[in-house]
Amino acid sequence: MKEEQNNTANNIGSVSTHAEGNLTFKAAENINTKYIFGAFRGAQGQIASATVGDVSKGDRAICVITDCGNQGDLVNAQILGSNAGTMKIVAGSKIVAGDLLTSTQGGKAINYKLMPKGLYHIYGIAITGGFEGGMVEFTPTLGLEKENK
User: Fold this and answer.
1) 15 lies in a domain?
2) pLDDT, tens digit, 9 for 90 and up, residues 81-125
3) Would you state the pLDDT for residue 15?
4) Least enclosed by CB within 10 Å: which of 17, 79, 127, 139?
């Protein structure tokens, strides 16, 4: 029974659907900022802030983490591309509407063109602009890859 409870808390083995795309995961690290890109890390079913969006160096974000929490706490995550709406994210630099967004180390959004040359996961297209530390609205993509030449 305890294993079933742990699996339920981590959404492991769950066959149900989540219409709004919100799931609860255990934090693999302290999460001190809301609305950052998140990726699987640590034990099965745990998430942490996404690393740099460079395909060769980072991990692929799967969600936007919408809660703060300590390592081991349960936090809410909006799965990228799982609903018909737009999403919010913290900007890691100045963003202009239309920018293709990838992740900084720490999970904040950045225009992939501001990153060094390389292949990047694109997590969305900015709908609104904003400055570093501010919130921007974006339409999510499914982590498509785009080369910055």
Assistant:
1) no
2) 887 889 999 999 999 999 999 999 999 999 999 999 999 999 999
3) 43
4) 17
CB-facing half-sphere around the CA of 137: CA atoms within 13 A: 4
Q: Read off the DSSP letter of residue 54.
A: B
Q: Are 55 and 119 in contact (CB under 8 A)?
A: yes
The pLDDT mean for the chain works out to 88
Flag whether 92 is in a domain.
Answer: yes
Q: Can you give the pLDDT at residue 4? A: 42
Q: Determine, yes or no, domain membership for 134.
A: yes
